[in-house]
Design goal:
Two copies of one chain form a homodimer. Chain A contains 17 helices and 23 strands. In chain A, the strands form five sheets. An eight-stranded mixed beta sheet of chain A has the order 4-11-10-9-8-5-6-7, sandwiched between helices. Chain A is globular, with a radius of gyration of 32 Å. Chains A and B meet through helix 1, helix 4, helix 5, helix 6 and helix 8 of A and helix 1, helix 4, helix 5, helix 6 and helix 8 of B.
C-alpha cells in the first residue's frame, strides 16, 4: 500500500462572490470558530503557511488576518511557540451546556398558540417577485437601480468622526435632515414648513399607521378610496373606525357630499394607489372647499409624487388654503423607502407634537445614522440626480410597456393610457378567470399584480395591474409577449374569426391602395394607408402625434408588413378574413390578432 | 477719496469643524444655491480663482468641485466662456411662485386641532441631559462610547457592490443578520432558535409595542411590574387591557398566585427596569412552573442583559422548560439601540409569523442597510469586543459612583448595593422633597432621574435614581459631590448633632486605640481600628472583602484621617460630638457628616 497523507479538512470555506476581501473573510472565519468555541480558549492555531494552503490563499493574506486578530485581542502570540486563542468566552457568559445538549428544541406549544393568536392573515402577501423571469409588479426594486456609489459617498461622509459625534446618541429627528427636507424636497410640492411641522418616520407606512392611530379613535368615520390601500383599511378597522368607501375613476377620487360628515379622508392625489390616476385640479379644489364648516381632516398620502413625468405636477393639498387641516405624508423616494426607510409627515405643530408621542410608544425614531447619511445624500445633490435618473428610467420602461402591450396584447383587453407612475391598470375581457391567467402566466415566468387585495367590496371581474419597477427595460417586451400568449390560451373561444381566409389574388385586390382605421390598445384612433407601390404610412393618437412609415407586400396567401419603428420594426405576415368592411388579421397560430375597418370609397393613388 | 473695491459677499460659508473636506463643502454650497434657484438656470458662475478668493480656499479646491459638478450635470462648461448652471429646476417641478410669495404661512387652525387632538401627554419627557455638567441619568449615551471605527468598517463592507446588490430591495429581515444573532448573541442567553423564530424590530421598544399589540386585545389581564416601564402601561391601556401591578423588591418581581389568572406578564429579569434588581433564580423557576395549566404568556424583556458584570448571569426564561410560552425581547445593545435601532423578538414560529404581520401594518422592517452593517459588525467580532469594552467601562463607572456616594452622601440616604447594570436606586430621608432637590441639583449642573413616571400607583416618598451611561467616569465624583451638597442644603434640620464638640484632649483620650463600628452607605458593616501609633486600618463588607489602611492624627479640636485608597486617599478633618457610645463627625460646614459606634472594652495596643 502506498502512504497517503492524512486528510486535513478546511476549517471554513471562502466565498469569492460576496464582495468581502479574502483577508476579511479569513478573519471572519476564525472569529466564528472562536466565538463558537470550536477553537476554544488556549487552542493553538495552525501556522499561517498551513492555513494558507488549506484555504488556497496566499500566506500573506493569512498573516495579515492573524496580525489584526492579535491586535483585536482574539489571539495572542507566544514567542517561539505560535498563536493561541486568547479570548475566554466562558468568563461571565452562559455556557451552552446549561441548555440540554445545546441542541435546538422545537417547543410543543403549537396548539396553545393556535388558540391564542386568533385569525390573523388580514394582509395577503404576494409571491416573491425575484423568483420570476418577468416580474411585472410594483412590489420592489431591482437592486441595479439603487444609487450605490452616491449612497456610499453620503454614508462615508456621515461616518467621519465629527459627524458621528454629532449624531451618535441623538435618538431624535436629525435637524440637518429636517432642514434638507424643508428646503429641497417640500418646496417642489408647494409646501413651506417650519422644523416643528415635520416628523420623520420609518418609511411612508409608519407615517400612515401613526396618522390612523391619531385620528381613528372612538368610532371615527373614515373615508377611503375604493380600490385603495388594504393597510389603511386594516389599521382603521383595528382601531374601531367605520369605513366609507369612496369611488375612484380615471381622474382619481370622486368627491362626494358624504365627506362633509366624515372625520377623516385618506387620499392619494399624485398617483392613486392602486389605479395610478392623478387627482384632477378641480377635484382638489372641491375637496379643500369642503373643509371649512366640517370636521373633516385630510390625510394626503403623496404616493409616487416623484414620478410625475407625463402629467403637469399638481401642487399638494397641504399647500392650499385651509391646508392646516391636511396631514401630508411622503417618503423620500420609492426607491430609498424599502431600503433606507425614511418617510415623513408634514402637519401643524400641535399635530406633529402628538404624532411624536405616538411614535415614541411604538419605537425609536428612524435610525439616526441613516438620517444623517440621507441628509448628506440630499446636501450633495445626489437625491436630486437620483430623482431625475429614476424619472427617466421609469418613463422609458413605461414607454416600453406601452409599446409591448400595443404590439402583443389581443384587442380584447382595455388599458387606461399611462399617466406617469410605474403601473398600468388593465381590464381583461368579460369572464376572464384571473386565477387561471395567473397560473398560466407563472408557468411562463410572468408575475402580474392581483388587484383583489385593494378592494374592500366586490372586485370587478377581469382586472389586473402591471408594474415596471422590478423589471429591466429590455425584458419588458418578452414578458408582455409571454403574458399575451397566456391570455390567448385562455380566451381560445376567439381562435379564429369565422369566415374564409382570403386568397393571394383577393388580398392584392383588397389591400392595394386601401386606407384602414383601427385603434391602439389604449383606445386611440390609428389610420394606416397602404400605397400601391408598397409604401405604408400610419398615424396614431387623437392629434396623429405618433406617426410611422413602412412597407407592405403579399407572399402566397399572407399579407406582410414591416414598420420602421412600430411593432419593433419587425416584419410580420398574417392571413386575413374579411367580414363586411372589417379586416381580421390571423396570426401563424391561427388566432385572431387584430382588426381594422376598411375606409369605404378610398383608393390611394400609386 | 480713495477708490475702494466693490464689496463682494461670499455666496456661502465654510465650516471647518463639521468633518467634511473643503472640496465637498464647496460642492455642497453650490448645489444649495442651484437648488434654491439663487443661482438660476443659465447663471454664469464666478471663475474658480474668484470663488477661491471669496471663500479663502485654494483655487484647486474650487476647480475640483467645479469638475465634479459638471460631471454630475449641475453645471455645463461653455468653451472660452465659462461655467453655467445647467439644471433647469422649473422643468417638471412646482414653482414656488404658485404658493403665495413662497413665504411661510403659519396656519390658523390651532383651535381646530386643540379640540380634535385630545389630551395626550401620556408620557413625560425628561430634560435634555446634554445641557447638564453632571447628567447622572440613563437616558442616552455620550457619543464617545460609540464604536466609530468598527462601525465604519462594518458599514464600508456592507456598501461594497456585491453586498448592496444582495440587500437593496430586500425589504425584509436579512438572513445574514438573523444567523449572526442566533449563532452568536442568543446562545449566551441559553437560547437556541431557528430562523423563523426570530423577528427583527426597530429597537426593543418596537418589539414591546408589537407584543402588546398581539397579546392585549379584548380586555386582557396584563400583569406589570410596579414600578415598571410607563410605555408598557400606556400601550396596554390604549388597547383596553386591565393592568395588575406586581410588587418588585431587591430580588426583582415577586411571583404571586394572581398571575395564574392573568393573560400576560411583562417582566424584566436581567435588570429590573427601573430598580436594577436581578430576578432571583428561585423566582425564575417559580414563574415558569406557573405556566402549565394557566393561560399566562410571559413577555421577557431582557433589558440590560449585557451589563451582567457583577452578578452571575442567569439564563433567560425563554431557555427554560415551557419556554415556548415566553416571548423574548432584546436589543443588540443598549448603545446601538438608540442609534442603529436594532432589536429582536424570539418566540415560537406561529407567534413570530403573526408579529411579522403586525410589524408590516406599522411600517417596514428595520432599514436593511443597517441590518447588513450590523451583521458585518457581528461577523467581524466587533460586537463582541464592544460588549466587553462597555462592560468594563460601565463597571468602572459604577465603582466610581459607589465610591463617590459612600464618600459624599450624608448617611440619611439608603442605597441598594449595585448589581451590575448602569443605575442605582436611592432612597432619601423621610420627607425629602424630590422636586426641591431636583431644582437645587439643576442649579449645580446635576441631573438625576425622577422615578415618578415608573409608578402607576402611589409613588414612595424620597426616591430617585442615578445612572452612569451618559457621564464620563472622571466626572462622577464631582457630580455626586454637588448632589450631596444640594441634599445637605435641603436637610438643614440635621445641621449638627446636639451635644458639645470634643476638645483636643478629650479627642486624644477617646480615639487612641479605639475600634469603631460603622456602616457604608449601602448598609455593609465596616470596622475601623485606630492604633496608638497613628496607623489606621479598615475592613468593610460582610466578609471584610474591602480593606484599607491609613493614618490618623489630631490638630487642635479636629480629628484628621487619610486612607490609602478609601475616600479618594485625601486627608480630611472633622470635629466630633459624643453621645452615649456614638461618635458623630461634624464637617467644616458644621453639618453632621457620618457616625460610628465605639466598641466597648476594646483598647488596641500600640
Amino acid at each position: 500500500m502506498t502512504h497517503r497523507p492524512k486528510k486535513v479538512l478546511r476549517p471554513f470555506s471562502l466565498d469569492k462572490s460576496n464582495g468581502l476581501c479574502l483577508q476579511d473573510q479569513v478573519r471572519r472565519g476564525i472569529i466564528n470558530l472562536v466565538l463558537a468555541r470550536t477553537w476554544p480558549f488556549g487552542y493553538k492555531l495552525p501556522s499561517s503557511r498551513a492555513l494558507a494552503e488549506l484555504l488556497g490563499v496566499s500566506r500573506n493574506t493569512v498573516s495579515l488576518a492573524y496580525q489584526r486578530l492579535v491586535a483585536d485581542g482574539y489571539l495572542s502570540a507566544v514567542p517561539r511557540s505560535g498563536l493561541f486563542v486568547a479570548m475566554d468566552l466562558n468568563a461571565g457568559l452562559i455556557s451552552p451546556g446549561l441548555v440540554a445538549g445545546g441542541e435546538v428544541v422545537r417547543r410543543e406549544t403549537d396548539s396553545f398558540w393556535a388558540d391564542r393568536l386568533g385569525r390573523g392573515g388580514e394582509l395577503t402577501r404576494s409571491p416573491d417577485w425575484r423568483r420570476f423571469a418577468y416580474p411585472l409588479v410594483d412590489s420592489g426594486f431591482d437592486s441595479g437601480l439603487f444609487p450605490a456609489e452616491d449612497w456610499r459617498e453620503a454614508t462615508t461622509l456621515s461616518l467621519k468622526r465629527g459627524q458621528i459625534i454629532s449624531w451618535a446618541g441623538l435618538s431624535d429627528d436629525d435637524p440637518v435632515l429636517i432642514d434638507e427636507i424643508r428646503n429641497k424636497v417640500l418646496p417642489r410640492r408647494g409646501i413651506y414648513a417650519q422644523p416643528d411641522e415635520i416628523l420623520l418616520t420609518l418609511g411612508a407606512q409608519q407615517a400612515r399607521a401613526l396618522c390612523m392611530d391619531l385620528l381613528c379613535r372612538d368610532g371615527a368615520r373614515v373615508a377611503v378610496e375604493e380600490p385603495g390601500q388594504p393597510e389603511i383599511r386594516v389599521l382603521a378597522k383595528r382601531l374601531g373606525a367605520t369605513l366609507l368607501p369612496m369611488q375612484v375613476d380615471s381622474e382619481g377620487l370622486v368627491p362626494n357630499e358624504r365627506l362633509r360628515s366624515c372625520d377623516v379622508l385618506v387620499v392619494t392625489p399624485s398617483h392613486q394607489l392602486p389605479t395610478g390616476a392623478t387627482l384632477a385640479a378641480n377635484r382638489r379644489t372641491a375637496l379643500m372647499e369642503m373643509l371649512p364648516g366640517s370636521s373633516l381632516v385630510i390625510v394626503e398620502d403623496d404616493f409616487e409624487s416623484e414620478t410625475n413625468y407625463l402629467d403637469e405636477p399638481q401642487p399638494a393639498l397641504r399647500s392650499f388654503e385651509h391646508g392646516g387641516r391636511v396631514i401630508y405624508i411622503a417618503s423620500l423616494n420609492k426607491l430609498l423607502d424599502p431600503n433606507i426607510c425614511l418617510g415623513f409627515i408634514v402637519a401643524d405643530a400641535p399635530v406633529i407634537a402628538r404624532l411624536r408621542e405616538l411614535r415614541r410608544l411604538g419605537g425609536p425614531p428612524p435610525p439616526v445614522n441613516n438620517q444623517r447619511a440621507a441628509a448628506q445624500f440630499l446636501a450633495l445633490g445626489h437625491y436630486d440626480r437620483m430623482m431625475r435618473r429614476l424619472a427617466r428610467e421609469f418613463h422609458e420602461r413605461m414607454l416600453s410597456l406601452r409599446d409591448a402591450l400595443n404590439h402583443y396584447m389581443p384587442r380584447v383587453v382595455e388599458i387606461e393610457p399611462p399617466r406617469g407612475g410605474t403601473t398600468l391598470w388593465v381590464r381583461g375581457p368579460a369572464g376572464l378567470d384571473i386565477e387561471a391567467l395567473a397560473e398560466l402566466a407563472h408557468e411562463r415566468g410572468v408575475l402580474f399584480e392581483r388587484v383583489e387585495p385593494y378592494y374592500a367590496g366586490t372586485v370587478p371581474a377581469g382586472l389586473f395591474r402591471l408594474g415596471v419597477s422590478c423589471i429591466a427595460k429590455d425584458r419588458i417586451r418578452d414578458g408582455i409577449s409571454e403574458l399575451a400568449s397566456a391570455l390567448s390560451e385562455l380566451i381560445s373561444g376567439k381562435r379564429k374569426p369565422s369566415g374564409e381566409l382570403l386568397t393571394h389574388d383577393e388580398l392584392v385586390r383588397l389591400m392595394t391602395g386601401a386606407q384602414l382605421g383601427c385603434r391602439t390598445i389604449y383606445g386611440d384612433p390609428c389610420t394606416i394607408e397602404l400605397y400601391p407601390d408598397g409604401r405604408m404610412s400610419g398615424a396614431a393618437g387623437f392629434r396623429n402625434e405618433d406617426c410611422d412609415t413602412g412597407r407592405w407586400w403579399i407572399e402566397g396567401d399572407r399579407w406582410y408588413r414591416q414598420w420602421r419603428n412600430w411593432a419593433y420594426g419587425e416584419a410580420a405576415g398574417f392571413q386575413v378574413v374579411l367580414r363586411g368592411d372589417v379586416i381580421h388579421w390571423v396570426n401563424a397560430q391561427g388566432r385572431s390578432f387584430d382588426w381594422a375597418t376598411l375606409s369605404p370609397n378610398v383608393h390611394l393613388a400609386p
